[in-house]
What does this fold into?
Amino acid sequence: MGHFSPGVRLGVDVGKVRVGVAVCDPDAILATPLVTLARDLTTDDEVVPSDIAELARLVELHRSVEVVVGLPVNLAGVHGPAAIHTKTYAARLADVIAPVPVTFTDERMSTVVATRRLSERGVRGKRQRAVVDQAAAVEILQSWLDAQRRRTR
It folds into this structure.
């Protein structure tokens, strides 16, 4: 691992319906919510899905040096169908944004934690669903950033 370099990262929470996106500052310290994208479930290999195209645009816009994708791991630690789905998505994204790397991080608890935190703040229903994906992306990116910093102290 060696030295952890600063730079803007995007955190991505891939859902079946929505994609939550978070961004961190250039010093790679704090993750903040960015946007929730609707999944474009087009199956045409010739067409880049609109959500992936939008992620690519955000990578450019924020001059992101890396994209961190939360990989859903069930509590037994086995990569199930959701993880395979996420890996397929990330591979497609990696093709589009190359040479910017896509990195996986274990998001075993992120959505759960994010949802609970929002519920505690009294955010429920439709509004909660709109922001919970971003909140999950924040959790994914923040825990990854914290882990990198711990590693290089």
Notes: The radius of gyration is 15 Å. The mean pLDDT is 86. DSSP finds four helices and five strands in the chain.
